[in-house]
Amino acid sequence: MAPKRRRLSRSGEFDRVYRDGSSHATRYLVLYTFPRKDEDRDEVRLGVSVNRKVGGAVERNRVKRALREAFWSLADRLPPRHDFVIVARAEIKELIDREGMQGVSANLEEAIAGGRST
Question: How many C-beta atoms lie closer than 10 Å to residue 47's C-beta?
């Protein structure tokens, strides 16, 4: 059987992370974290939300791809059995244009490190 995608896809899953999880914000994004209780799955799951203020559909999809790539490159540093939601702020487009994936990864690392200390 093929492995299940490690994405949050239902609005209820997003709502649970927003409502019951913790968050840490940077200038470019907000990272929400929620520890799951299901012991049989150690996987980390990700949801990405990009508002229309970021741009049109093409630009929003570009931002989502960049955020997913940066997140999964850092996945080995993340705790198991957690759901994460990344909410992109409008300024993230300028960060991607200016610094590329390095800037996105650095900003996401900052949010992850800030989330651990709270």
Answer: 19
* Site of tokens 């490690």: 6
Give the model confidence (pLDDT) of 64-91 as tens digits: 999 999 999 998 889 889 999 999 999 9
Under a CB-based contact definition with an 8 Å cutoff, are residues 81 and 38 in contact? yes
Three-state SS at 27? coil
Contact 95, 55 (CB under 8 A): no
* Contact (CB, 8 A) for 80 and 71: no
Which uninterrupted H or E stretch holds 85? strand 82-88
Residue 1 domain-assigned (yes or no): no
- 6 lies in a domain? no
In a domain, 107, yes or no: yes
pTM to 2 decimal places: 0.89
- Which tokens is 77 given? 């540093």
